[in-house]
Write a structure and sequence with these properties.
Layout: H1 3-29, H2 44-78, H3 80-89, H4 95-128, H5 136-167, H6 172-195, E1 202-204, H7 209-220, E2 228-231, E3 242-245, E4 252-256, H8 257-262, H9 265-280, H10 283-305, H11 309-314, H12 322-332, H13 334-362, H14 368-380, H15 389-395, H16 401-409
Helix pairs in contact: 1-2, 1-15, 3-4, 4-5, 4-12, 5-6, 6-10, 7-9, 9-13, 9-14, 14-16
């Protein structure tokens, strides 16, 4: 049997099995009573509901991952990738339009297959637990906008990559790397102004106690903000959140209206302080550099396999092409992607602890407001308080909230 086919199918199955094992262990790790640290925000009914939500989410994840894994394997073994290749070749277009048609057809098919699962998650699962506020119109418009954005932005990126791999010879991967990094930086810079507003309304925060407190905190800590905005998160969900967008002088903070509704001024400032900590401690820069390096690694590895006849034989392909090779490489890349994801999550969890500590040191409450905010968010979002370590290791970019609270309560190390 083809060695590439063995590696790809084994990787897909291994990833699926790891997910199932992770969910099983997390389900068994659940306890009937909330941890004592959270007894003040999780009454018995709320805690039972959070566990029910976790189990329902894991069952949903199991079904979707099983479907996705089985679908990919069936398509590979049935020769569907070769059938599609012959279909897009029939008009006899040049390689780049043909490649865009091939990649676009697969992306569209993936979006259509995932839509029933997304609809179930939004209108059944999230609705059942009181989170969903999305209307059918908003749901459909979100998907339509997503398809259009992906077609335009993804099409430009894919066309550039195809062009360089066709025209740039042995150094094509370097040109692709530079092009992809430039595109990512540009999108990050313009997203707050041109892209995010397509999905949500961002309203400048009105003058008042909260805005004054945020601006005063930013001033004391030498952190420049180009704007403080309230995002209509309640348009889709009752869950709360906050985040920074943009780069440099276009950096701004967005607070969900659901977060503002549920938290005190002191708690919101603590959440902001955590995000400021990421910037002040260099986490954002480190993540950016790591992401750039990862992108370079991907393109270099890709260049090694794009002309491998064995890789195309694994998919039953009659013809070799750059555009099909891109798709096949990402399936072959699965085990490396898993390893890098685990390492990335490990680094991210470390950064979250550090940002929490920064918030504790730079706010007047000395960590009390951050603890209160974390606990409120966990109750509001029905977070699972006791995930199994394997689940944390595989999936969590943030530490479990109980670990964050206990770290904030721990005595500071001696200087």
């Amino acid at each position: 049997m083809n060695v590439y086919l063995i590696v790809i199918i084994a990787s897909l199955v291994a990833s699926w099995l790891l997910g199932l094992l992770s969910d099983l262990l997390t389900s068994r790790a659940m306890r009937p009573e909330p941890p004592s640290d959270f007894a003040d925000v999780f009454d018995p009914a709320t805690y039972a509901r959070s566990q029910e939500y976790a189990r329902a989410s894991m069952r949903f994840s199991c079904v979707t991952e099983t479907f996705n894994t089985a679908t990919i394997i069936v398509l590979i073994l049935a020769g569907a990738f070769n059938w599609l290749d012959l279909a897009v070749r029939s008009p006899a277009l040049s390689p780049i339009p043909t490649g865009l048609a091939y990649i676009g057809s697969l992306a569209l098919a993936s979006a259509l297959m995932s839509m029933p699962f997304e609809a179930y998650h939004t209108f059944v699962l999230e609705n059942r637990f009181g989170f969903n506020t999305t209307t059918l119109r908003t749901f459909l418009l979100d998907r339509l906008k997503g398809v259009l954005l992906t077609s335009v932005l993804g099409g430009v990126l894919a066309a550039g990559v195809l062009f360089f791999f066709h025209e740039a010879g042995a150094l094509a991967w370097l040109w692709c790397w530079g092009f992809a990094v430039a595109a990512t930086l540009i999108l990050t810079y313009v997203a707050p102004t041109w892209i995010l507003p397509l999905f949500n309304k961002f309203t400048p925060m009105e003058a008042g106690e909260l805005r004054t407190a945020i601006e005063e905190y930013a001033r004391k800590n030498g952190f420049e903000l180009s704007g403080i905005f309230v995002m209509d998160g309640s348009k889709r969900s009752t869950k709360g959140n906050a985040f920074f967008t943009g780069l440099g002088k276009r950096r701004r903070i967005a607070l969900f209206d659901t977060l503002i509704k549920e938290m005190t001024t002191e708690e919101i400032v603590a959440v902001l302080a955590h995000e400021v900590g990421h910037a002040k401690l260099g986490h954002i820069r480190k993540r950016l550099v790591t992401g750039i390096a990862k992108t370079g690694l991907i393109f270099w590895l890709m260049s090694l396999f794009l002309n491998s006849r064995g890789l195309f034989d694994a998919f039953g392909m009659e013809h070799m092409s750059v555009y099909a090779g891109l798709i096949f490489f990402f399936l072959l890349y699965t085990p490396i992607s898993m390893i890098l994801s685990v390492l990335s999550n490990l680094s991210s969890r470390r950064h979250e602890f550090q940002a929490d500590a920064f918030a504790s040191k730079t706010t007047d409450s000395g960590g009390a407001a951050m603890i209160s905010a974390l606990k409120k968010l966990s109750a509001q979002n029905l977070s699972n308080l006791t995930p199994h370590p394997l689940t944390v290791w595989l999936e969590y970019g943030h530490p479990p909230v109980i670990d964050r609270v206990r770290a904030l309560r721990a005595p500071a190390p001696a200087p």
